[in-house]
Design brief:
Blueprint: E1 8-15, E2 25-30, E3 35-42, H1 47-62, H2 71-95, E4 103-111, E5 115-121, E6 125-130, E7 133-136, H3 143-149, H4 155-160, E8 180-185, E9 191-195, H5 197-200, H6 205-213, H7 218-231, E10 238-245
Antiparallel strand pairs: 1-10, 2-3, 3-4, 4-5, 5-8, 6-7, 6-9, 9-10
Helix pairs in contact: 1-2
Length: 246
Amino acid sequence: MLQNLPTIMYHGMTDVGNVRSNNEDVFHINEASRYCLVADGMGGAAAGEVASRIFAETARSVFEGHDGCSEENTIARVQATFRLANDKILKHVERHPQDHGMGCTAELLAFSDERFIIGHVGDSRTYRLKNSLLKQLTKDHSLVQEQLDQGLISPEEARRHVLRNVILRAVGVNDTVALDMLKGKKQPGDLFLLCSDGLTDMVDDRAVHDVLAAKGQLDQKTSALIHLAKAAGGKDNVTVVLAAIA
């Protein structure tokens, strides 16, 4: 058994923002089971909120008793969370046809003894600050990202694009969910950021970097990011989760 495993510290916050009347974002942190997540609901009314809550509750059930020792087991639990949450949302819509179109984007970050594992669907994002450099680990499943990849628009145009919130993948929309999986070695000093697009639509990566790289506690950094998003307009719910490897 590995000894002296790095400690992982977490902090998360969510805010309804300046415009919306309800918060369809959900975050969840489970230190004992070594994972955290952000889900951003869609579908209007209360349906989006239900979808993101279903995702969080599914993760809680799937990761019960998870100790992170096995990388293979951790990967399997991440995959199972997305698959089961997808099924549960679809079954909810069968019972409540008025909620047709509901779903959620989702980021799930889990840790094994030596590795981090990320499950990603939609346009919420996961970043890592490593050696003072901020890198976006996930790639948006969005119409604007496709246009960006094809060279049809510039990064600056992408930030202002009227269709930037059109997503191409979500949990609970199709019979099967197309899941991006990422993994890597975790190291002391790594700082992971999971966030909904309520942050990244309002705040550019340079400003995010400056907050994460500054001295301060995790709760101060989450508060600062939420404040920046709201100061820039707060047009959507905004959710931030940080996970720091000590």
